[in-house]
Structures are given as structure tokens and as C-alpha cells.
Amino acid sequence: MRTFWQRGGKSFLFLLFLFILWEVLVRLTETPKWLLPAPSDVLKEATVGFDTFSGHIFPTISLALIGLVIGSSVGLIIAIILYRLPKVNELFYPLLILSQNIPTIVLAPLLIIWFGFGMLPKLIVISLVCFFPIVVASMDGFRQTAPELKHYMQMVGASRRQIFWKLEFPHSLPSIFSGLKIAATYSVMGAVISEWLGAKAGVGVYMTLAQSSFRIDRVFLAIFFIMLLSVILFGVIRLIEKLLVKGRNEGA
Amino acid sequence: MLLNINKLNKTFGDLHVLKDINLTVNEGEFVAILGPSGSGKSTLFQLIGGNQIPDQGEIFLNDELINGKKGFISYMPQQPSLFPWRTVLENVVLAAELKGKPNYEEAKQWLAKVGLADFENSYPIELSGGMKQRVSFIRALLSKQNLLCLDEPFSALDEFTRLKMQKWLLSVWEENRKSILFITHSIEEAIFLADRIYILSKRPAEIKAEIKVPFSRPRDERLLESSEFFTLKQEIFQYIREEITE
């Protein structure tokens, strides 16, 4: 815990320094608020305008969370199938990589045309950006199983199924969590992007509204909120990782 | 006899690794296989463990042909190979777990017997090298196969720990006389531990000699200083020397 504060404290102080620098520069140069608001303006908007903002918080959080859960579950299942069935892997792995080359910004409007403005197209967008890091990280984790442990399992006559569930899967947990951490930050981004393209409420909606009325302080409020949400999600996943991954050297 | 290997041959491509290996292990006997590194000792275990299929020859365990069949032996590898996310207790039952429900009570008794009771719930990362090998050995003991195959289990340990572990192994084995097939490249280790020693030649490995170790049990480290021990060591060294010259 102490090392956490020593490490986290330094970067927190540095962040504070950057904010102060920003505040000072904005005031010295007398930059207008519609161009670049000072941090104090954003903070004021966060308190004064909280009522306009608060209604947009929950939809985005729930969208990001549901999308993350679906995306990572699908990713994990795909990774397991691909790893355990090499023939399927040969066929589908290139397709998976290609799927990541479709720009989300192009795909999202198409999905809205096909599936309407409800939750479904948004969840598809989020799942699509979330599942890939999980697939790649999990597959790497499965493949990097310590050879001497695998050799041991083979010598004592473990079946392929036992080798996977007793050795390869638990062995790859740290990798899966690395993928999850990336996916978590993607999921918030995916939620906001999908909200841009049409939703009733959400941080993405709030952002587009603020942008079109030159309320840059509100845009920054939304940006800070997105950052905060990502950091919190990251932290929660890190916590779960600490509880689940045991007996190994501390990972980053 | 428990294990009977008959005219075993194995090649990998052009590489003739094992040539006409004949070998037996009796019930309750401690047999060592001594050979230079790269002589195919580990290949022999791969064959007995059923991970490789011999080109020629038969492997019988209790008169049953086990060529290419897995799960008939207990095994202790060179590296402790403990699963880092399992506690010591969960690790020692692993091999038994593959065959059905493990007996945790028996596992706890064994851990207590070898002085690891306090570490039951520790993770391998907290153990010393010698302790890890003890856990690895108990894991092999707890799986119910009759033949215990040990693959240079102490070669990665330092000299002091190794001697301690050899004595420890003997003391455990006196109580629980499972048949053991022990691969080593240390002459002293083979003499100190085994009832019988097979000496392998360099590749393609053949059985160069079979030596009966005449010392009575229980043995302790005073044996290591006796002149009989030294004579036997010299005798074995003659065979080894033929392998390292030229």
C-alpha cells in the first residue's frame, strides 16, 4: 500500500502541476473560454452544471460495462475454441485480424441502419472493440505455458482436456487480465463513440451537444469523466486480478 | 517383476537414440540408470511414460504391454514443476487428481511427515529449492501407480542440499518401498541410493553394464567414505571412462 502511494503520489503531484500550469497559462494569455477553458472553469461547470450532466452518466457506464462483459466473454470463448481446435484457428484467425481493420466510425452508422437506435448496435460496437485484445492476450497466454509444466502433465498421463483446464487456462490468467485491462479502456471509448451516432442520453450525447454549442468547458468535463471512468474500471480489474492470480510475481 | 523392458529401440529421424535396451525393475527395488548427458535417458522415460512410441521392443508393466500408453507411472521431473497458483497441498494432490478424487487427509499426513505441515497453504514461490523437490516427490508418491520414475531430481540443487535430499529420499523410501527407476549422471548418487545400476553408453545408448550394489540398508553418509564405496565407484568409473575417451 505504501509503495502504491509512493508511486501514485508522484504522478498525482505531476498531474496537479500540469493543471496549475494550464490554469496559469490560460489566465496569462487571456484565452477566451469558448476556445480553451481553464481547469477552474471545468470544475465550476462540474458543480454548477452537474444536473445537466448527471443524467448522462448512468447510461454510459451501463453501456460500457455490459459491452465489456459481452465483449470479453465472447473474446475468451473464441480464444479457447481457436486454441483447442487448430484447424478452426487456421481458418478464422486471419478473419479476426481483418475484423479489426474495419474503422469503428464507418461501421457504427451501418449498424444503426441495420439495427436501429437501441442498445443492440451500440453493444455490437463495444463488443467488437473489446473482444480482440482478449483473444490475442488469451491465445498468447495459452501458448506461453511453461514447457516443463506441460511436459510433467504429459508424463503423468493427463488428457488434453486436463492439460488445458488444469494447466494452460490458469497459467494464462495474468495474460487474460492484461487483455481485460486494455479492453476496459476500449469499452468506455466504444460506448462514447456509439453514443455520438445516436442515443437519447449518455456522455457521448452530452459531448456532441456541448460541442455544437461551443460549450468547450462541458466538452472537457466529458473528457475528464471518460478518463476517470477508464481509470476506475482499470483499477477494479487490477483488484480482481490481485484476488484471483495467486503465487506469482507481482505483474505490472 | 514389475517393469520389464525388452529389446527397446528408438530413432528420431537419422538419430539412433536407444539400441536394444533390456531392463527390469523388481517389486520394491531401487534401480538407477547412469549415463552421460544426451545419452537418451530422458527418451527412455518418454517411452515408459507413453509419450513416445518405440520403434521396436516391448515395455511390460505387471505383464501388461504399455507401449504408447499413458498414465501408468508416477513421475518426478528434474525441475520441481509445481504449479505456482496452487498451494503446496493442492500441488501434492495434482497427480492423484487426474485419476479421480484425491485423498487430502493422506496428503496432509505426508506433508506433516516430511516437515512441511506449516507450508500446506503456502505457494511454491515461498519455498526453497529443496522444499520444492520434497513437494514434487510427495506429489509423485501420492499418485497410486506402482512405479516411480525420477528424472535427475536433484541435479539442479547445490551439493549440500543434494546430499540432504538424497538422505531424505532414502528415509522416506525405507518406509514406503515403491519401485523406483532413477535417472542420474552422478556415480556417487547412483551407488548411494540404488540396489542395482544400469550404465548406459553414449549414443546410440546401449546397456553397457549392470551392477549390483552390495551395501545393506538403511544407508547413511558414512557409506560415502568407506573403501568399499570407493572401490565400486572406481569400477563404475572404468565403464564411464570408455565412454568419454575418443
Automatic annotation (TrEMBL), chain A:
Question: Which residues are in the ABC transmembrane type-1 domain?
Answer: 57-238
GO annotation terms (biological process): transmembrane transport
Cross-referenced CDD domains: TM_PBP2
UniProt GO cellular component terms: plasma membrane
**Mainly resides where?**
membrane
**Which SUPFAM superfamilies did the record assign?**
MetI-like
Question: One Pfam family of this protein, by short name?
Answer: BPD_transp_1
Q: Which domain of life is it from?
A: Bacteria
Native organism is Ureibacillus acetophenoni
The record's InterPro entries line, in alphabetical order, gives: MetI-like, MetI-like_sf
Residue ranges that the Swiss-Prot or TrEMBL entry lists as coiled coil: none
Give the membrane topology, semicolon-separated if more than one. Answer: Multi-pass membrane protein
Q: Where are the transmembrane segments?
A: 12-29, 57-83, 95-117, 123-142, 176-199, 219-240
Keyword Membrane assigned to the entry: answer is yes
UniProt protein name: ABC-type nitrate/sulfonate/bicarbonate transport system permease component
Q: Which family does it belong to?
A: Belongs to the binding-protein-dependent transport system permease family.
**Signal sequence residues:** none
TrEMBL record, chain B:
Alphabetic keyword roster: ATP-binding, Nucleotide-binding, Transport
Q: Which residues form the ABC transporter domain?
A: 3-227
Q: Which top-level group of life is the source organism from?
A: Bacteria
Keyword match RNA-binding = no
Decide whether keyword Membrane is in the record: no
GO molecular-function terms, A-Z = ATP binding; ATP hydrolysis activity
- Name of the featured protein: ABC-type nitrate/sulfonate/bicarbonate transport system ATPase subunit
User: Species name for this entry?
Assistant: Ureibacillus acetophenoni
